[in-house]
Each structure stands twice: as C-alpha cells, then as structure tokens.
Amino acid sequence: MRVSDKHSKITQAAVKVFAKKGFFNARISDIAKEAKVADGTIYLYFNNKYDILISLFEDEIGKIILQVKLLLEKEDDPCKKLHIFAKHHLLLLEGKKDLAEVLQMELRQSNKFMKEYRNTKFIEYIDIISTIIHQGQDMGIFNRDISPGIAKRAIFGALDEMSRLWVLDDDPHYTIEQTANQVCSLFLSGLKKPSIH
Amino acid sequence: MRVSDKHSKITQAAVKVFAKKGFFNARISDIAKEAKVADGTIYLYFNNKYDILISLFEDEIGKIILQVKLLLEKEDDPCKKLHIFAKHHLLLLEGKKDLAEVLQMELRQSNKFMKEYRNTKFIEYIDIISTIIHQGQDMGIFNRDISPGIAKRAIFGALDEMSRLWVLDDDPHYTIEQTANQVCSLFLSGLKKPSIH
DNA sequence: AGCCAAAATGAATAACTATTCATATTAGCT
DNA sequence: AGCTAATATGAATAGTTATTCATTTTGGCT
Known about the structure:
10 helices
C-alpha cells in the first residue's frame, strides 16, 4: 500500500468525523475507526490533531484554487468571471458537503487556537475575487469607488453565509443555480432600481 | 448583592474568556477566576458550560435587536435604513470587541454540538434586513428580482465577514465608517457602472 | 524460506477538567 | 445577639482522551 493511500484515507476519515462532530468533539479514535487504522497509525502521518485539520485544509483548498483558476482562465468578462467563482464556490456543497462544512465551520475558528498558523491559502483564495474586481475596474466596467479589498471580503462573506444555509438547513429553499444568480446580480447591479433619466 | 449581579458578572467574564480562548479551550475555572467567584458558584446560575454560551447569546443579541429596531423606527428611506443597520452591526466591534468575537466565532458553530438549540434570536436579527428589503420593494425603490430571503443572508454574511477582519486583524486598513459605506454602496448600487443610455 | 527494516498496532500513560457536594459564610430577621 | 435559609466555596470525583511506545505484522529482497 502506498504511503499516500493511508495519508489520504485518514484525511478523508477526518473530514467525515470533523463534519459530523466538530473538531473538538471528534476523538482521534473516531477518525482511526473511520479510516480503519489503529489510533497510533495516525501519528505516523500527522504530528497531532491540529495538524490533521491544517493539513486537510491546505490540501483541499489548494485543489479548489487550481480548479477555479483553470475555469476563470477561459473567460474575459469580469461579470461572468464573478458568476463562475460564485457558482463554483457554492457547487462545492453538492458533491462534498462534509468538506464544505469543515472548511467553513471548523477552520474558521482555527486562528483562535492556532495563533501561529497564518492561513495563506485562504488569502490566496479570496484574492481571486479582488483580482476579478481590479480587472473589471481597469476595463471600465466596474465602478472605481468600490474598494476591491473590501468587496472581496463582502462577496466571500456573502457566499460563505449562503453555504451555511445549506450546511445547517435540511430543507434548502433555493437551488445552487438560483442562489449564485441572485448573489451575483445583487453584487453586480445592487438592490436599487436603475434610476430613470 | 443582587442575584442578577453575580449572573451578569459571570456572563461578562465568560465573554472575555470565550473570546480569548474559544469555547472549548475555555475552562470553567478560567471563567470563575475572571468573575472572582468559586467554580461551583457558576453552577448555581447556569446548568452547564453550554448554557453559559446560549444564555449569553440570547441576552446580548436581544439587547442589540432592541437597539437597532429603535434606531430604524425613526427612518423611512430603505437605503438609509440599510446604512443604519450596517453601521450599527459594525460598530458593535468598537465598544465590544470580545462580545462581537464570541457572537461571531463561537455561536456560529453552536448548532454542531447543540442540535436541539434553535437559534430564534439570530433569525429575528437577520429578518430585520429582509424587512427593510421588502419595504424598499413595496416602495418601488428596490428591484423586485432580488429575493429578500437570499439578500438578507448575503448582506449579513458580508457584514459578518467584515467584522471578522477586525476581530482577526490587528491592524485594520479601513475605518468602520468607510466599511459601512463601501458595503452599503456595494449592495445598493452594485459593482457595475450605471449603463449609459 | 529466511531476514530485516519499515509500517502498523492498541493498550497504557499522563494529563486534563466539568461537575458535584459536604462544608462554610453571609445576610435578613426577630 | 442568635437563628435560619440562602448563597457561596473549592477540594474531590469521575470520566474523558491525545499521545506514546513496546511489540507485532508486513512486504520486499536474496
């Protein structure tokens, strides 16, 4: 059995267990059982419990960044780019609900108990948004009054909150497609009706 | 000493300790020490550790809801109402950084470990936003294509994420005033420049 | 088959801490 | 001052669980 097989078996198990119980309530033995390895085996691949969470995050968000950047390459229109980003972010939930839940709920508060860990991958992820906004401004399509640094956070926050709806709600009222459309048109055109000249 | 004095002394201490260490890493003895009471005393006022968190939340968000509803009463214009809501939400951080951090980081994941607890106060809070949007739509100012149910989440998410910037960042790049303005104009007018007819 | 290093095991260790409860203190009352 | 109920204390309990490590198993090699 390749080394990476066991590493990823444990990671996958951890995603499941963390999603179900939360990081603090998850026991190493739960993860071990789910991965079908001995408790001690986990410590051959990870330094400690936190390390599982961090390592899991770096791996998975890394994959997501690659995916979404590839999709964005093919498109020029910043509006459409924003659409692609939003839909891709929300679609995570469809195939990988557990992963989405862990990335969202558990990692969010990781800064609290792992002060030294600077989450550079996350920054790389949301910087995709500000890059799109800069582009739109340079092309004269987007309003220059909007700060990309603030807007990236606002847009990410909005998408993230929409995800939470699915993660926590058992009976979602909207489809992912609908939500992506709504959020994008909210951010692109705003609430206000265009004023009539 | 009035009963409520000790109750609120413990609550205030819990806010501090939860903000600093996070719910799971906070020890009852930490809270007791901060509140200058014995460990056992806490159990005269709260059923258990979770109960401290829930009770704290219900009390504090209740106060916030009252405050912001009072402010909104005096205003008719939905755009200005949104401004008021946004600024009020972000201003929480100035005076009560610890509280903001606990409400945001700790309570967020409470659903995970307290399945039975339905967070009705939180729903009441974000429904303030959808009420404003409905009003704007009825008045013909806001676009009817936007679903208030989605927009309320998106707007709350955006504000919440902006809060997180302050909570986690030691050196904020923008003032609260600037941020509230940016977020509101983003949501009201959108990224796109008005098209020229 | 026999050898050996790498990988895996899981019982034991070594804290850690929420909660309890027997005891002590306080405060209101006569 | 003396009494009593309410309030407060904090040491002891009881249970939890991350991590270690002596031992076993595996798999590649000759």
